[in-house]
Specification:
Bound molecules: beta-D-fructofuranose
Distance between the termini: 73 Å
Radius of gyration: 24 Å
Structural class: mainly beta
CATH topology of the largest domain: Tachylectin-2, Chain A
Helix content: under 10%
CATH superfamily of the largest domain: Glycosyl hydrolase domain, family 43
Number of domains: 2
Number of strands: 30
CATH class of the largest domain: Mainly Beta
Length: 514
């Protein structure tokens, strides 16, 4: 007995020691908060955004745990406070009353356990019995597992002893335990559900559905949806919700198959609209479309609020590209999009910036019924580095209509509409510091098919210090991208019509949160 017991005990000790070694004892919530307090004033402000959610210092990626809790919006995020690169991922935390002003809160979760020592990866939050439950992916070595942390006050979290609550044993046989992540938890009737993603052994994406009565003990329900080879090698950040009588599944997809000269994003957020069969746990897809056609929107997450709105936020950035603010040594990378309200209209998902932003507009210019014929024009006070521009133009007699934004003598970001192809292009080739990546280094433009309504093009453009977000035809399409103009100011806006364009209405508003 003694002789059998000792080797087992030794192996166990070695195992415990190894696991303990994997956990870096310096990576605690306390150390992260102390580091942020000491260093946040050292970052370079040049490209910091004026009205978008950002971390005080360091690297951020996905929004996590987005929730309306105790009358405020809480937003957690993938966070490395220590430098501007994606490692040692913690959960940062901020809150807001209006989705526009964000208040930094202490870091919520650190990679301090053997099961999450390589990163507290993405996840979501839900309220149960007045407490906030965060469900996240623990990343360690070559495994990913799902874990729970609970908070009474919404600020300090305790990881539960039962972690992980979902591990390799919870996976269907076609799934790889190395790529099993991003739980989005929700309630339906008396049951809790979670959707997660996993890579299959065939290198495709799939969404898994689990159910629970207590958020701790989970039971595998189904493979909710399986991807094809064309639909990427891995799916991330699933979100499943009902909206205006339809079911919507949002996924962030890695390596969508693109043919020949299709230079659309390879990694992108894709919206699946369809019908959920809850008895079988299957999602019947009716339509598939990209959510945003710019270069820098990924890892969406939605929340509902007390007004019954379904609001989406996302990382306003992308994997596999260069990050100028890191390269410049500015000490930070990453921000979230302006939150958008979602609806289904005529079978399409439409996005509009949350109405709260409008209370910060200071409208400085309004023009109506101006005709441009084969000319380039600027409009007095329609200029700015930070602001909101609305345009309604009749393009019945126009070949191309072009707007140069954030322009100076050398640089510009171009929005261009071609009436023959009905395509709107966002081009950042000459925006400033060039952003290169693994997609197609020669092509710095993205386009979207956006047919005119009654010959009209409607645009709403949000400019911030290093971003542009374009909403097309009342939110039917959007294009989001980071830009890094190098001259100060880079605030000119120029309009060019080939043929005749009638600008029916044009406004420019400054956005000032002070
Ligand atoms: C998406 C993602 C998630 C993962 C997290 C890691 O951007 O890759 O799948 O949980 O980022 O930071």
């Amino acid at each position: 007995m003694v002789f059998i017991g000792i080797p087992i005990l030794l192996t166990l000790c070695l195992y415990i020691q190894k696991s303990a070694c994997d956990v870096d004892p310096n990576l605690t919530v306390e150390n992260a908060n102390a580091f942020i307090a000491e260093n946040k004033d050292t970052i370079n402000q040049t490209y910091r955004l004026k009205y978008h959610a950002m971390a005080p210092i360091g690297w951020i990626n996905d929004p996590n745990g987005f929730i309306f809790f105790q009358d405020e919006y809480h937003l957690f995020y993938q966070y490395n406070p220590y430098n501007a690169y994606p490692n040692k991922i913690h959960w940062g935390h901020m809150k807001s009353k209006d989705l526009i002003h964000w208040e930094d809160l202490p870091v919520a979760l650190a990679p301090d356990q053997d099961y999450d020592s390589d990163g507290v990866f993405s996840g979501s939050a839900i309220v149960k019995d007045g407490k906030l439950y965060a469900m996240y992916t623990g990343n360690s070595g070559d495994r990913q597992v799902q874990c729970i942390a609970v908070s009474e006050d919404g600020i300090s979290f305790q990881k539960i002893d039962q972690n992980p609550v979902l591990d390799a044993n919870s996976l269907p046989s076609n799934a790889k335990p190395q790529d099993f992540r991003d739980p989005k938890v929700f309630q339906r009737g008396d049951l809790y559900y979670v959707v997660t993603v996993s890579k299959t052994v065939d290198e495709t994406g799939q969404v898994l559905l689990y159910q629970s009565t207590d958020l701790i003990n989970w039971e595998f329900k189904s493979i909710l949806l399986e991807g094809t080879k064309e639909q990427g090698i891995m799916w991330e950040c699933p979100d499943l919700f009902e909206l205006d009588g339809k079911d919507v599944l949002l996924l962030s997809i890695i390596q969508i198959a693109r043919s020949g000269n299709d230079y659309s994003n390879i990694d992108s957020v894709v919206e699946f609209i369809g019908e959920m069969n809850w008895d079988e746990g299957k999602f019947a897809v009716e339509s598939i479309k990209e959510l945003d056609h710019g270069m820098d929107l990924y890892a969406t997450q939605t929340a509902t609020d007390d007004k019954g709105r379904r609001i989406v936020t996302a990382w306003m950035n992308m994997w596999g590209r260069t990050y100028p603010t890191a390269d410049l040594g500015d000490g930070w990378v990453g921000a979230m999009i302006l939150p958008r309200e979602l609806h289904i209209e005529d079978g399409f998902l439409v996005q509009s910036p949350v109405s709260e932003i409008a209370s910060f507009y200071e409208q400085v210019a309004e023009y109506t019924n101006v005709t441009l014929t084969d000319q380039t024009s600027r409009f007095h006070l329609v200029s700015g580095e930070v602001g909101e521009m609305e345009l309604q133009a009749n393009l019945e007699n126009t070949n191309t209509f072009t707007i140069e934004l954030r322009a100076n003598d050398d640089e510009k970001t171009i929005l261009s509409y071609d009436t023959e192809s009905s395509e709107l292009t966002l081009d950042r080739t000459n925006s400033g510091i060039s952003i290169t990546g693994n997609e197609n280094p020669q092509v710095f433009a993205r386009k979207v098919l956006a047919p005119l309504n009654d010959n009209r093009l409607k645009l709403q453009v949000f400019l911030d210090q290093s971003s542009v977000e374009v909403f097309v035809n009342d939110g039917r399409e959007s294009l989001t991208a980071n830009i890094y103009p190098t001259k100060v100011p880079s605030d000119s806006i120029r309009f060019t019509a080939e043929g005749t364009a009638l600008i029916e209405r044009l406004t420019f508003s400054n956005i000032n949160l002070d």
